[in-house]
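Subject: sequence -> structure tokens, single chain

Hey, anyone have a minute? Need the predicted structure for the following. Not urgent.
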Amino acid sequence: MFIGHYAVAFGAKRYSPDISLGVLFIACQLADLIWPNLVLLGIETFNIDPGNTAITPLDFNHYPYSHSLVGLVIWGVIFAGGYYFIKHGKFKAASILTIVVLSHWLLDFITHRPDMPLTFSTATRLGLGLWNLPAVAICLELVLFGFGIWLYTRQTRPRDNIGTYGL
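Reply:
Had a minute. Here:
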């Protein structure tokens, strides 16, 4: 999943309008922001394998800390906890941020081949493999993204022309 993750951030704005869209974008992409850093540190690995899927040649062979379900629960709680601490006790917002972080695993589960780890051990890996059906995957992402923007525009009102045309 690529732009589909942003659909969750746009849609989440409806349920917690106090959270900035920038913070929601970080939450929905947190796994993909952490992953390259763990790769650079040698903690997680991948291979380039043309034909691995029809959409990407990346073979995600070891990324349990950034992309496992357990890992994302932990990252979500840490991220939301930081937000809760900085914003002085907005529990609803912190809960929504945790859900947005966790949504990354669910959407990747739909698109990835069975390489999405459940735990740090990576023994069990899941994925529906939608990336092997590019037309379906791209249509799904566009529909999700459009739905997210639709939810966002129904919830928010631009303050000026920057807000009107910047989206």
